[in-house]
Amino acid sequence: MPAAKSARHADTAPTSYEQALIELEQIVQAMEAGQLSLDDTLSSYKRGNLLLQYCRSKLQAVEQQVQVLDGEQLQPLRTEPDEEDDRV
Fold it and tell me: What is the pTM of this model?
């Protein structure tokens, strides 16, 4: 991620979970490539940390909503239909 782009987005909140995740993946790829200067690496790390916190808070909010909808008990995700579902 170029320095100008990372500086421009440093304090900007993501618009969505998906956008934050895409940007976070781009930061990881740029850092893993080893092509960033020390300052760019630090800026990217700070931005990545902000994005990670944003994603975690969004996931926690969704989990809380699911708990409310399920009566405070998270139910296991059904991956296969029940036998009763086949009789309909």
Answer: 0.66
